[in-house]
Amino acid sequence: MASDNFVQPAILRFDGHYDHWSMLMENFLRSKEYWPIVESGIQAPTPNAVLTDAQKTELEGRKLKDLKEKDYLFQAINRPILETILSKKTSKYIWDSMKKKYEGSARVNRAQLQALRRDFETLQMKDGESVTSYCAKTMEISNKMRFHGEKMEDVTILEKILRSLTPKFDYVVCSIEESKDIDTFSLDELRSSLLVHEQKMNRSSTSEEQALKASTFTHFSNSRGRGTGRGRGRGGRNNNECGNQQQSHHQESKFQRREKSEAFVDFKSYKALVEKEVGCPINVLRTDRGGEYNSHEFANFCENHGIKRQLTAVHTPQQNGVCKRKNHTIMNMVRNLLTTSGIPKSFWPEVVNWSIHILNRSPTFVVQNMTPEKAWSGRKPSVNHFQIFGCIAYAHITYEKRNKLDNKGEKCIFLGVSDKSKAYKLYSPSTMKIIISCDVVFDEEFTWSWNQNKESILVDFDDEEKGQQPMEDEQKEEVTQNVPIAEQSPLAAESQRSQRVQRRPTWMHDYEVARIDQSEDPLNHFALFSDCDPTSFEVAVTEPKWRKAMDAEIITIEKNDTCELCDLQNGQKTIGVKWEFGVDYKEVYAPVARHDTIRLVVAMAAQNSWPIFKLDVKSAFLHGDLKEEVFIDQPPSYEKLGNEHKVYKLKKALYGLKQAPQDCNIAMFESFKKSMMIEFEMSDLGMMHYFLGIEVLQSSAGIFISQKKYVGEILDKFKMKDCNHMNAPSEFGLKLNKDEGGNKVNSTLYKQIIGSLMYLTTTRLDIMYAVSAISKYMECPTEIHLLAAKRILRYLQGTKEFGLFFKKRKKSNLFGFTDSDYAGDSDDRKSTSGYVFMLGTGAVSWSSKKQSIVTLSTTEVEFVATIACACQAIWLKKILEELQFKEDGPTLIYCDNSSAIKLSKNPVLHDRSKHIDVKYHFLRDLMNDGVINLVYCRSEDQIADILTKPLKFPAFQKLNELLGVCSCAALKD
């Protein structure tokens, strides 16, 4: 029975796609255990060889397998092709012939691979194409490339799919890139994620759950009395379904009624309206079991028009949940508007109309990426006409309806918009009539006082910017001139002011404000000032710690021989002495310190195996020699006994003396070279471990500087300490732009992130380009820019330990690399210049900056970038000369653009570059004077690439190693 049910597998016939056919055919032959015959063939015995019975049996078996294999190959090959291989005697010859014919030689294979590479790079997902189809195309090309010898990694295919999807998958791509590690994310996982998103989008356009299936019936009637159905408030609940569900159920219609018996009349009007607008009949009507929907007249009407009735079970309102929830939403909004506006409840129909008008133009989770009004009509609705419901409005009175002395406007109350006219609906308290007018001026700060028949002021300190809108102020001023406001008595005004609800201004929301309890002892608050600095000598002298500090200062002045006692001659004047008291903080650094200089000193120390120490010089500043005669009084309480009448003649400058900043350097630095320990009192802080926020780690292998602690503080500040890490700070091939149509984000938060990252570039040049790229959009950042900034933070999460490592090695000269990205800015088409200077094995100076001009060629942009690099080289050479570091020959600058190098050397090329500014040609003088020398390097060896464009991870990692960017593990011996 088993043999009877066995199904012979079908043999795939050759259709011209050799790579696909050969893979399947090889797998088929391997399953039959015939593949060894194809690989090795049949070894025929020599003519004189004598075979044993076993060898003869084995040989016959191999020949039989070869015949079966030939049979399979003949079945899989079409007759025209089969004619060309009939002369082949064995299956191995047939297979080799097919492979040579269709796979070709190495040269043909290379040409086919080039074509496949082009197809792979240009492949894009088309609108309307399914995820399954596009992924299949991508994998088909990838498999062909692998067949022709290309090493195609899964991460390469994954990145290709992500960057070539249609725009509707943008936020899914961003979510995957931000939450997943691309290197470990499989293709199957990507395909499943995209399929789930595609199914959700398909469901969103056809699912019945997208519909806003609420219809609140409203119709005014002159009849009075109660309805006959069960009491559920004004208006029953019903729900209907049209034949074309994709176009229906999106907008709420308003049919208010006073009696439930009017439901049948309203439904007929609603049916005519809906079928006219949608163009399809109503198929299903879902209602509760109220009497207004169960009349014989209602049932006969639905039956005659082919409308299927669906009724809820008794006491199960959840079966009509969509309409019920929407009614609750509307009524909650109505109650809020009635409360905030103070309008009487008799105006509830107008409040319902305005509530539904707002809901139809507000975003909702049910209809994705559009409002109900847009889903219904296909047009994006305008909300420019939205005003505060119940506010004061002035309707213009036309010239025909007023006299010369009459007011030009009538004070009214805003009740929404008209259903029949493109105008506002207003209520006039004076005439008690509804006014429809499009010429209206609104005053949203005032509302009508229904109890006192006058307006009251709505005080809202949160809206602090209203006074900064000149357009609205001019309108209000004009209305005030044309429409007199009713005068109020002083008593009424006082009563009105007493009822205002005062709130904190917006700018105070970031502060914690505590109210002082009246029962609390006021003396408790003086504890805030218990540890302040003394303001006078009389106060300070009473405290031992300040007395001790003054004694130490006097001892230091005397030890440095700052002044001497002498008699004051006639005509000479003294300068008074004043003690200044304050805390001397230990970590105070020069505000003009440049990190380039610090890194340069560290690199020199690493080259020469010098240890770096940190010293604290006490009272070193402002002790230069004075060239003028300056006399000062003796400090109070420190007068010399018996010489109280004498004064001090200064030999050196003191704090606060106007000559001090001019005399502090020359003598101090000269004496520092000879005998600093004798001249100043110093404290040795040992080996330098921390300086200017930079952590320094010295070892026998070299010096490592980093900002690990600061990285942790940044991640904690922006709540990214638990995020997943990325392997690069920016995505390869990503070009940011202004994204004017994108969703705006908090610009203050965005600027804080960039400011924190800019300081981190002191030791992390690997993020320099990414930070420079996102800093262009601080004025108006969007979600795309914030995602790029967060990607940098995620990269830092995985590279907290990274810093700059300066290895111990023989002395080497300063050399630099310069590069540019031509027209990299998609907004203004300006280019990015980048340079980096190396001393030994570590980078000491770098820059990534957008050029100030628009260049016209790659030669010009490289030329401009080289100029910026040369200027920095001049400054660095001067610093090295000050540090007694002598260089051998000019500073080498490596550039990967040969035209720019020739332009700097050969004046013949200047005819083709006349538009380049003259100031950029001083590069030739620098080269002629032997200051710098431009050297050509290949693009693969251009280290400055990391500062001008986002790179693939292998290239990014390679350049980091060449620049000395690594983790502290590199210091291990």
UniProtKB/TrEMBL annotation:
SUPFAM superfamilies: DNA/RNA polymerases (SSF56672), Ribonuclease H-like (SSF53098). Residues 201-258, 465-499 are annotated as: Disordered. Residues 284-380 form the Integrase catalytic domain. Coiled coil: none annotated. GO terms for biological process: DNA integration. InterPro entries: DNA/RNA_pol_sf, Integrase_cat-core, RNaseH-like_sf, RNaseH_sf, RVT_2, SH3_retrovirus. One of its GO terms (molecular function) is nucleic acid binding. Residues 465-476 have a biased composition (Acidic residues). CDD domains: RNase_HI_RT_Ty1. Residues 202-223, 238-248 have a biased composition (Polar residues). Residues 249-258 have a biased composition (Basic and acidic residues). This is Integrase catalytic domain-containing protein. Pfam families: Retrotran_gag_2, RVT_2, SH3_retrovirus.
